[in-house]
Structures are given as C-alpha cells and as structure tokens.
Fold these 2 entries.
Entry 1:
Amino acid sequence: MGQTISEKILARASGKETVKPGDIVTCNVDLAMVHDSSGPRTSGKKLDELGVPVWDMDKLVVIADHYVNLDTPESKNVQDICDAWCEAHKVKHFIRNQGICHIVLPQEGHIRPGMFCVGADSHSTTAGAFGAFMVGVGATEITGVMATGDIWVRVPENVRMEVTGALKPGVVAKDVILKICGDHGIMGFGYQVVEFCGDGVAAMSAQDRMTLTNMAAEIGAKTGIIAPDAKTTELLKAWGVRGVNADDWQSDADAVYAKRITVDGDTLSPQVAAPSSPENADDVDNYRNVKLDQAYLGACTGAKLEDLRMAAEVLKGKKVAAGTRFLVAPSTIKMRELAAAEGTMKILEDAGAIILPSGCGGCIGLGDARLAEDAVGISSTNRNFVGRAGPKSSKLYLASPYTVAASAVAGQIADPRDML
Amino acid sequence: MIQKGKAWKFGANIDTDLLAPISALTSAKPEDAYTECLKDVDPTFAPNCKEGDIFVADENLGIGSSREWAPQYLRSCGIRVILAKSFARIFYRNCFNLAVPALVCAETHKIATDDQLEVDMENGVVRNLTKGETYKCDTVPAHLMQIVADGGLMPHLKKKFKKAS
Ligand code: SF4
C-alpha cells in the first residue's frame, strides 16, 4: 500500500518502515523552533528548571519576533530575557529581530523537504509548503523536545485538497484558504493533515504556497503539507539550502486519503472573512460597503516579498483613502530590503503607507497597528478572533494582500480586480 | 482518577485569545493575570471559580494559538478537569502537559453552570449529580494518564531524568 508524504516523513522520523493513521509513535525531531514569547521566557526557564542541556544545539532555532515593537517595559523585558538566555546557553541559531519566525526559518535555510520539525507556535504548519512536516506545540511540550529530542505523535489521517483549474488575476493562495475556511469551518480538518495539490497549487509561486500551509492552522489541521517541486527547490536554493532532495518526498499514487476535496480555482473570487472568525469567509462582493479605519499588510500570512508586490500592483499611482490608515509591516527585514531595492516599498510609501517594524505586531494587537476602540480594520493576517488585534469593540476583516491594498485605496472593502 | 466539582459551562469556539488575552500576556506578571481569563465572555468566571471546579464547553475548545497560558489560566483559576465536545489539538496536548485532563464528551450540552459533576476518567463516565444523569466521555490513552498522574509533563520529565542519572 502506498504512503503519503506525511506518512513517509513520520515513518522515517520514528525509525519504522511504514506508519498508519492512529498509530502513536515517538519521533526524533530534526529541528525545534521557539520564539521570544514561547522560548527563553517560558520553555527556556522550564528547561533550566529540569537542569539538562539542549539535546542538540545544531537543531534548535530561537527567533525573536513577537515583541519587536519594544513599546512597553514588558516587551523590552521579554527581549532582554531572550537575549540573556541565548547568550548563557550559547544558542547557535539565534535570529534576533529579523522578522517573523515562520518566514525567517525557511529564509535562513533551516527547512528542507522530508524534515520532521516542531515549533512552539501554532503557525509552525507554514514549513509544510516546503515538503517538511512541522507541527505546533505548547511551551512545556517544547521543553520536553529540547531536553530529549523526541516527541509522541498520533499519526494523522490525510486529506487530499486539490485546487483545480487556474486562479484568475487578483486571486491568490489567501483566497483559496479563506474559501476552505468558509466551506469547512475552523475545525473542518481536526487532527488531520491537509495535503494541498492540483494545478492551482502547482501554478502558485513557492512563496504564495506558504499562505496555504500557514492557515492550515485555521482549519483545525495538525499541519498542512505540499509536495516539493522545481519551484520549491529553486526558492530554497535562493535561501541558501543546497542539495535539496524533492524526489523522495512525494505521495505515492496509491496512498490512502480519508477525504478528497476539490476547490474550483477557475471560479474563485477574492474572499473576505468577516469578524470574528476566519470561517466567516465569503466572496468580497458581500462586504463591499464596509467602511474602514485601518488596513494592515503584515504577519507571517501576508507580508512576504510577493505579498508586498501584490499590494504595490494595486497601489501604483494611487493614494490611500483619506480617513483610512494603511500600515505595512514586511514579514522580514530581508524581504523589506528586497522590496526596497526593486522599488516596491517606494510605491507603497508613495501611496501613503506607514512602514512598521518587521515582527508580529499588529497581528496580535501589539505596537502601532493595534486597533483602537470601535475601529474597523482589514488585514492580511490569519486570525480575527475577538480581542486578538485590538479591544473587544474593534472589528477585523481578513483578506489577501490584493484585497487589503484595494480596500485601503477605496476606504472601504473593495474588489482588487477592479483596480488591476 | 475521579474528580468531583461544580461545572462552569461555556459555548463553542472558545479560543486562546479569550482564555489568555494579549493584555494579560504582556502584563508585568503574566502568571498573575489569570484573572483576565474569559473576561470578554463571562467576567464572573475568574473571580468566582474555585479549586476543583470543572470546565465544560461545546465544540472546538482552545482554537487559536499555541499559548500554554490558555490552559494554565484555567488551572490557575482552579479548574482540574475539562470536558468539551471537541478540542483544538495544541490546546488538548497543553492541558495534559499541565496535568489538567481534557476529555471529549459528546453530551456537554446537557450540563449547566453550577451542576455538580463527578468525572470518572478511567471508565469514561460523567455523572451529573444535580440532574441525576450519566454521560459517556472518552477515556484517556495510558501514556497521557501517566503524565497526569505524575503531575504534568515537567514532573514527568524530572522523574525520567532522575531515573536515567
Ligand atoms: S504574525 Fe501573527 S500568526 Fe504569525 S507568528 Fe506572529 S503572531 Fe503568530
């Protein structure tokens, strides 16, 4: 019987020939990632309490990204703890204030196909875009991983999510995943791994695919994964990864899937998720007249180089509407620099964008992008739960970088296809 | 293991931002800020929850982020067992790692706040002493019950390393 890419990875990591859904296996971890919030101040402290060293310093990556705004004494304190812990433990891979962990991790060459990784953050699923199996865990659990190098896993069922046809201009991965959230709900694929495939995925850039696996977390999945192809290899190469083996990490033709679902790429419209859940997603048409105080382009979901380019495509020669604030927090400093070098940042700034530090910031209601009382915002982030990006009275809509940019220009939710 | 206590009943989709708001996490002492737990849903919960009380919810409990503060805050409020129709997976694992068993129970809609409950984790039975009803719940895999019995993943690991040395 054939195996899916996920089963092949879990079998390899647990030292078995094959695994099947429902098996509980102990996997050796190829890489563990923590950030400033889930790392030194929480799991790091716990590891010290155990009094054991990190199992393998080559395999731990610490990324400071959540508290980069440094706008409160508490934020500074979190960063100080992070710095001190990494120095005391001689952490080999400490990446400080370079951008958001899920983007920085592959960008700095830490991810390759076939790896089994864990991260102390729910969007650790993002690495699946490169054919790695990466799951999110909590702080105590990652302490166990840092101490022992292994973790128990219940082998998940596989869902084959095929995007058929071709997405139209102005429609991107974010719209696909919001559509899936809307159709299947935020626990639509609880405990399962969702494998994205089909012509629609093959045609996407390797960077845009990261948005699909990032938001696998918003459909309840254990993780999302995409079989690596030439585009994956090329992007990883550009990020300094050598000798990528894509061939060994493909699902067999006779692999078993619990569900097979298709998304029709040909007919898909830009999607918008209304407050206060990603599952409130619907065609942009249904939200056209919602007035906006703020538009935010940021987060691990929607502020990569290509996301910035999408926004620039819409904003070229246009101005942000009076009465709407347009805030841009490029997901990493490197991507901001690349966007600056090619003129993309200038287009955004000329249109009236305010550029914020590269970090989580507005996504979790920190820093200048925090929504005010009663404010209405649209954002390229992945979650719009009550109280996440601002006070309880604020309202947040989720959309693609194209739709966020178009809405910033219109001052209300707008269809980007009218501006391209 | 049998846990007896008073029920606190919540609905579906209680997410980690509600359980552990960012204002609590960014406060000077996040460990003391459990008083903000669920303040946007039921501000009476955190001040009135007692040691040994039982948290009851509908579908999708703990969706959202990996922040362990979510189950930690419930624990700090006094919650010792959690029942829900379904759990988000990271939250589910976090609960056991903090020695708060999380049990899947399809009949939580029959439970109301203030009901006295008795949860028998080995046998997968929930007795509603107030209503005189009995519900089924999932039993917990042995390796997870062991973590709970040890007092959570930290004490479990300490035991493991002590044995090894
Ligand atoms: S940008 Fe938002 S979703 Fe992404 S890691 Fe940061 S807080 Fe989490």
Entry 2:
Amino acid sequence: MLERYLLPPDGADWRSLDAYRQTGGYEAAQRALQTLTSEAVIEEVKASGLRGRGGAGFGTGQKWSFMPKPGGPKPTFIACNGDESEPGTFKDRQILERNPHLLVEGLIITGHAIGARAAYVYLRGEYVTAFRTLVRAVEEARAASLLGPGHLGSQREFDVHVMRGAGAYICGEETGMIESAEGKKGQPRKRPPFPAVYGLWGCPTTVNNVETISQVPSIIRRGANWFKTIGTPTSTGNTLYGISGHVNRPGVYELPLGTPLREIIEVHAGGVRDGKRLKAIIPGGVSMPVLSAEQIDVRMDHESLKQAGTLLGTGGIVVMDETACMVRAAIVIARFFRHETCGQCTQCREGTAWLYKLLRRVEGGQGTMADLDTINEIGGYMEGQTICALSDAAAWAATGFLRRFRAEFEAHVTGGGCPLPESFEA
Amino acid sequence: MSDAVFTLSEAVKQQILSEVPRYPEARSALLMALHHIQAEIGHVPINVQRELAALLGIRPIEVREVVTFYPMYHEHPVGKRNIQVCVNIACALAGARSVVRGLEQKLGIRVGELTPDGAYSIEEVQCLGSCGTAVCVMVNNLPFIENVRPDRLDDLLRTVG
Ligand SMILES: Cc1cc2nc3c(=O)[nH]c(=O)nc-3n(C[C@H](O)[C@H](O)[C@H](O)COP(=O)(O)O)c2cc1C
Ligand code: SF4
Ligand code: FES
C-alpha cells in the first residue's frame, strides 16, 4: 500500500502554518518535547532503521548518539544539508517548496534529541524559491512560539536559521558545508575530528540531509514499528526518487525504499520516451556507477544496488535511451567534477582534469586503446586516498561508464569518432 | 562605469548587519552579505569587498578568496541579465548544447562574454536541481525558468525580457 507522508497530495497547499497544522502538524514535536526524553527520541529513531538520505545512508539514530550528552561546555548545533547539488537530484527542493513546516518540525525534534541550541539550514544559493518559502515558514513558527526561548512550552531555547550557499557543489560535503557556513571557502576538513566533536565554530554538530530530518516527525508520530513496515528490513521508510532524462513523466516520486527500478521507470515515470529502447540508468546521482538496461530489475535499496555494483546515493535516477552516447555522458559528468574539485588533494585536482581530457580525446576519435586503460589507471589513483569522497565519485563515474559500455568506447577508438548519429551533444 | 563609483549603500549595510546576530561569529554572515551586495550592484567590486571586510571585521583577502571560490559571485560586471544555462546530464540530454549555441547566435556573444550594451551575458552552469524540468535556465538570482526547449528560444528571450 502506498501512502505519502513527506509530500502533500497533488494540488494541496501545505505551506502555511495553518494548513500544516490541520494535517496534524507539530503534534509530534509537541509530544516529543513534553513527554519524551532525548534518549527516548534517539532510541525510537534508531529502532526505525532510518538511514540518511543525503547519499551515504548512514544510520541516523546512530549518528545522533555520537553527540556529547547535553550540558557540556560547548553549545551544540544541527547543520541541515540542503545543498542538493548532486546532478540528477532535485528532491529536497520538493520538501522545501511544498512542505517547509515538515522540515521545521523535524529540526525541532532533532534539536531536542541532541540538545542543540540551533539549527542552521544550508541551502544551495540557486534555490531562491525554496529559500523564501522556508524563511517564511520559520518566521511563522517563531511567531507561534514553536521556535525561540521556551518553545512549545519547554524549558529550552531552540531556533532555526536559513543560509544560502553560492554555487559550489563541494559545499554539500559535510565539512565543506561547515566551512562555508562559517564564511569561508568550502574546502572539506580532514577527519578526525568528526563534526560530532568539532563541527560548526568548533562545537559538536550533527549533519543531516533535509529529507532525513523530514522523516523524523512521522517516526515519532506513528512509531518505529510502523516505519519499519515500509521498505526492506535494512532500508526502511519512503524516500523521494527523482527521475529525469529520457522518460515520459520525469519528476519526484515518494515511494518505499526497495521499489523495483523497473516500476519507477515504466509505471511512475511512464516509460522511455518516444518508444525508444532503454540503454543506461544512473541510479542515485552522477556520483554513482551507471547500470545498463539489462539491470533494470534491481530494487532501489542500499543492499540490492550494492549487489548490482553501484549505490543508492541520493536516489536521483537519470535514464538514457538507445540514442545516447555513453562517452558523451561520461564527458558531461567528468567536466562537472573537474569544475567542482576544491583542489586541495593532488589526486583529485589532477585526476579530474585528466579524466576529462582523455574522455574528450576518445569522443573526438583521437583516442587509443591505451587511453582507455589510462582512464582506469587514473581512477585507481583517485580512490580512497583523499580528504573527501568527491575524488572517489569522479573516478567511479568515469570507470563505471567504461566498464559497463567498454564496446562503445572501443568503437569510438576504432571508428575514429562517435558511432551514434542521433546522440545528444556534451 | 568604473568600479570606484560603487560603494556599500546604507540599505545593504543594514541588511548585512541584520544577518550578523544569527551567528556566533560575524564572518559567518559573509555569504549572505555577498548575495545582498550582488543583488544591488550586480557584481562585487574590489573596493566594496574592502568595505565589507571592514564591516565584518575580517581581512580583505578573506572576502576575496570567498568571492573567487564560489561560482555565483562575480568580481567583474556581468550582463544586466546574466543567462545561466545548466549543461549537466539531464539538461544535456534535453538539448542544453543547442540552447547555448542558439543563445550565442541570437545575442552575438559567446559563453562568458557580455553584449556591448551590457544587457546580456551567457554562462554555462552545473546542475541547478531542476533535472525533471530540463532544460533549466536561471537569470541573475531569479526563480528558475524550466522546460526550456532548444527550438523555442524566442519564448525564452521573451521571458528573460
Ligand atoms: C562531494 C560531496 C557532495 C555532497 N553533497 C551533498 C548534498 O548536496 N546534500 C546532502 O545532503 N549530502 C551531500 N553529501 C553527503 C554529506 O557529506 C553527508 O553525508 C550528508 O549530508 C549527511 O546527512 P544524512 O546522514 O542525513 O544523509 C555530499 C558528499 C560529498 C562527498
Ligand atoms: S577529494 Fe577533491 S574535492 Fe575533496 S577535499 Fe580533496 S581536492 Fe577537495
Ligand atoms: S542537470 Fe540540469 S538541472 Fe539538473
């Protein structure tokens, strides 16, 4: 049975406090603050099996339990990640623009669980409408004493601040975001120390994605056992799948984790456009290795995708039909990483530049078979050795396309250029 | 117009100062401050960077390294309407390359340039978070223009104004 709890029904407007309250909004926050201890909230979220929706799928309750016990020498903070810049990903925007109070309520409950003084929501700078919508919701919540000193009748003070980034993908990486929120270049920090020890302004900080936090009110309202009935045993709850590219009905669909990829493409997104044949699917944002059409029967959960040789990532699905050139797809993605590397680590800075250059050469028909091996070799140097995972992602994307579509890459070499006359341009 | 004529207006100064109390350190207001400045001036000239540094109590280089790190900030003037076309994967699949080429032809400039009258400039940008409604275009700091079709660029330019 499909039931939404993140997005409003089509046509409904839940953006105002009144509208949100009519759906039972803020009841969970009220109950949590007035009747549940911090530990009880963390236990409930742990028991729900909720895993982060920002890309890595880390256990949310477990992450919260890394925070120091309340009453320590330093204030603690939530850094809520709304940078949403992973290409193919456009789901947090749906919550921010259509159900902003759900996020605010989730932040209040999370703040109670970890004893935070405030939440800083970092939105990518381009999300102008989302920014305005969320700021309005925060102001309404503050005016209604849902935020601020003694909020919701508690003894605590808790507030939410919304800030804007300025177009750098790396500020979605958790420590890049923290640096950026402090008013600096978004260059990721070496870990340890982890944000739970040394985060915003050197204080203990929990970093969670917008969608992750927005799952929390329903877990508190309806219980961990209800949440676990949705999805698979290790990937619980609904999630927001974004689907784009060559499909008839691109968009964001709220469905259980573990929904078959075929169902999302053929039923929800209306199938491949213009009656063309499916060729390739990126399952979770461009950082995740591509799948070929034969793998369409995989389920969209952490374990199933891992078995298929890729990862769930952000759940941003990009569909490509038979006309699409796989070398060009790899070029677009390599160009992105070359543009977004922060430059601190040599492997990443140099590697992203070389991958792009080599792919361009192959696409232009000047490549050699040795170049294909060099792509794999460079990818190997880029993995597992850098400050953050951007380098790994850039390597996985390029080597993933090469592994899955080797014959097409080779055809560019032997044929002196692109064999697909109808392909999109890079 | 030379950059020297630009200065932090009183209104923008007040906007910036109202951001500061949200954070334990004034410097944290820097990104929001730069957005306010750019909304008024269109770019962030060096001398205004110096004024901002003084206002937030940091060194001018600490402002400049941020201005030059983030793609949304411009140290030099861009067109009055800076047309930013997403060229990442979903938009590329929907014809972003033809959108860029078509705009270059219609406006007589290349990516990164501005028209002689300063009215338009074109930029290629990375995924805007609107992949389901590709091709996505953003003008200045305004809400997205979605579902742009390469064969309907006159419609696009009418929307851009
Ligand atoms: C290069 C890079 C970019 C990232 N971008 C985002 C992003 O835009 N939004 C996000 O929530 N997480 C992003 N992440 C993941 C964050 O580092 C972090 O794992 C996440 O925000 C944690 O939240 P969660 O546990 O709720 O998923 C990115 C990671 C990397 C390495
Ligand atoms: S891996 Fe790349 S993006 Fe990450 S810190 Fe190193 S250079 Fe910067
Ligand atoms: S790829 Fe263009 S908006 Fe995402």
